[in-house]
User: What shape does this take?
Amino acid sequence: MKFASTIRAAALCTAVALLPATTAGFAQVEGRASPEFARLFATYQRIKASYVEPVEDEVLIRGAIDGMLGALDPHSAYIDGNALERLNTMIDGNYQGLGISVQMEDGAVKVVSPFRGSPADQAGIKAGDYITHIDGELIYGLEIDQAVSQMRGPAGSDIELTIFRAGREDSFEVVVTRGVIELEPVTWSLIEGNVGHIQVNEFSADVGADVRRGLMELQEEATGRLTGLVLDLRRNPGGSLDEAVALSDLFLSEGQIVSQRGRARRDTIFYDAETVYRGDVAEGLPIIVLIDEGSASASEIVAGALQDHNRALVMGERSFGKGSVQTLLPLTRDSALKLTTARYYTPSGRSVQEGGIAPDIRVPQLSDPDAERRQRLALRESDLRGHLINEVGVEDEALTRDRLDDPRFQLTAVELEEMGVDDFQLDYAVRTLRRTAGTNIARN
Assistant: This one.
């Protein structure tokens, strides 16, 4: 998410402040407003005069705002009070709750992704699950903020979730103990064979610097030179556009990283290499980027940039397909608009919207027995009601999921477990780097 500059935010705040919310204020602007606004005002008057019960202005205005934003794409929203506070705590990377990313789908709460190592992840909650009840109470039809607020709570407290999972006949209950979710944006480890593994879990502040520090520590820990690097962006829902640019710039020494293009000239921006970091900090080191259907937004910017510049080989599953930029535009001291202001494009001019990033090598997660079923039912940008259309034009086959059988990927989850492999995608990436040590594995 990109934050508006102080000047832009102040300008918008002033403009919105000029829109009166009272009956007298509406009367002042009615005469010079468009016919559409006059129709809105007439509806407001009829409700105030004739509805079976008195209705507060605050309720009607909030409903009108939600209705306007609901007519746009699924990522634009009005945020105030607790919701704005929750957004700020998420940006800071510290809150108390379950550690789970959810999305409303036709009135139901659907899990986009549990954060790695979070209470939800440890309790076995999986992407694609539907949460139908919280502590026995049906939550179908609630606003997303209401459902999220019920899932939040003090660390150490228990919450019972009723889960519906595709492939199972009956729903089931899971008890999750809330924790302090101190999201570690970046973690790293050295894998046998001098292969570095850096996980980027979300794009909050200083992700680029953290990845750089992780790479330096891995190089010091390795016996000799690193053989290769796995940059793991799976289940990463995105975050700061600036941090996506910074992370990409670590491994690129020239060319464009990403461009964003909006209606207003100020929303059309080109981001180039060498603006955050000088040179390629891992020059000559083979890189594999892992993505899946939970890799969205900022994750797709990084994967697309490194793929287009042939700096990395992309493996895994097709990404989520969120190719739009949201700007947080303050309205008042405790309210803001999260508004879609631009689309972004990879260096070669590809729009990620709808189609996502296609991996150079599709590698299914064979170690998960439910992976194929969840792939068929996975929620992506193209599944969201009201999503932006890819105006560049994506071929139909680019929006379908690859179901072709690959002779390399025939092992079952049970067989892999017996072999000691609990993450097949990572294992396959590491084995690829070991086999190709010292060569450029990126596509030509």
Remarks:
- The longest strand covers residues 335-345.
- Residues 1-31, 396-404 have pLDDT under 50 and may be disordered.
- The longest helix spans residues 35-50.
